[in-house]
Each structure stands twice: as structure tokens, then as C-alpha cells.
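Hey,
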Amino acid sequence: MADRARGPMMVEEHPEITRAGNAALRNQIEQMLNSYERDISALETAQARAAEPVTVWSADNLVRVTANIAGVIEVHLQPEAFKRSSPEKLGVVITETVRDAGRAAARVQEEALAPLTDAAAAMPDLPDLIPGAPATKDLLARFVPPPVEQAPPPPPAPAAEDDDDDYYRNQGYLR
């Protein structure tokens, strides 16, 4: 009867229950931290893949643009670009190719990060489980910049053939 007077079983009287509970909790936390570390590693790998440069050629193969998610890395003009095109047309081709390279880099980024964004949206966030832990969704937002709206490309400049273009194109300046 003395046991009933004391109330429910005291934890101190059964240290094996406390140890087992602590071990289970410790194991669960270790699994969550390991999962978190794998997620961070996957984010960093995806970010590196998303930042890889892409190269785009113009339709006439006169302009090559290399870009990544940060912007244009290189613009290369084939030597015959100046012979086969006017400055106005070449400017339009360069602009279009730069835009195409930007779109290609955005696609690479989207493809690289898609599995992570889908997984992150479906899982509970770390602060939901461990108060004060960093939010995975905040970390993901740091790696994925918000989409940039692009203005539609301007209409191509009207093709105006003037004597100056022929002069340069036909190398009249060498005579």
C-alpha cells in the first residue's frame, strides 16, 4: 500500500527507462542531423551544377555567348561576322544570343534545383522539429534567386542597306 500512496511509478526508480528514452531521442536527433547534412550537401552540389556555364550560338553561327546564372561570361564574334553582317544586324543577333544564353542558364538552374525544391516543399522544416534550428526553406531560398522577369525582345531593326555598310563589308577602305 505504501507504493500506491506515492502515486505513479517514479522515473528515478527505473533508470533503464530513462536511459532507453534518452538513447532513442539521441538516435532520432542524430538521424535528423545526418539527413540535414546530406540535404545541405545536395544543395551545394545542385548550386554548383546550376552555376555551370552554358554556351549558345546564334542562328547564323556568327556569335557565341557563354553565360551562367550570374550573367554573361563571354561574347565571341566569328571573324566573318563583320563581312557577312551590318553593325545593326549584328547588334540584334548579339542581343538575341545573349537572351538565349540567359534562358539556357536559367533552365540549367531550374533543372539542377528542381528535385530539391520539390523535396523541400514536401518535408517539415527543421524548426518545426527542433526549436531554434535553421530553416531549410530559408537556406534553399538563399541558393535559388527569385525568377527575373524578362522584357520581350525589341523588334529587329529595319534592314537598311547604305553605302557605308557596303564600303566596310566589301573592304572598300583598303583601296
